[in-house]
UniProtKB/TrEMBL annotation:
Pfam families recorded: Complex1_LYR
Signal peptide: none
Taxonomic classification: Eukaryota, Metazoa, Ecdysozoa, Arthropoda, Chelicerata
Regions crossing the membrane: none
Protein source organism: Araneus ventricosus (Orbweaver spider)
Protein name as catalogued: Complex 1 LYR protein domain-containing protein
Stretches assigned to the Complex 1 LYR protein domain: 9-45
Residue ranges of coiled coil: none
GO biological process, one term: iron-sulfur cluster assembly
Cellular compartments per GO CC: L-cysteine desulfurase complex; mitochondrion
Domain of life: Eukaryota
Length: 76
């Protein structure tokens, strides 16, 4: 459950970053670039905070997650 949330959040974040880079790759105005960097840093702080909150309030692992963990350790 938590892993799914973190995976979806990670996928969403990566997609947003790639889209933002593609959208602004031709930007030459230094003031606009500085604004974009400031905005990106603020978003990074939000992402980090959400990950911490997600880890703090995670629920119990599902049966499938437990099974996958036991399967991985058995293979090693």
């Amino acid at each position: 459950m938590l892993n799914d949330f973190l995976l979806h959040f990670r996928t969403y974040s990566l997609r947003r970053i790639k889209d933002a880079f593609q959208e602004n790759k031709g930007q030459t105005d230094y003031e606009k670039i500085d604004d974009l960097i400031t905005y990106a840093k603020a978003n990074l702080d939000i992402i980090k905070r959400q990950v911490v909150i997600g880890e703090l309030y995670r629920g119990p692992e599902t049966v499938i997650e437990n099974h996958l963990k036991s399967t991985k350790t058995a293979k090693q």
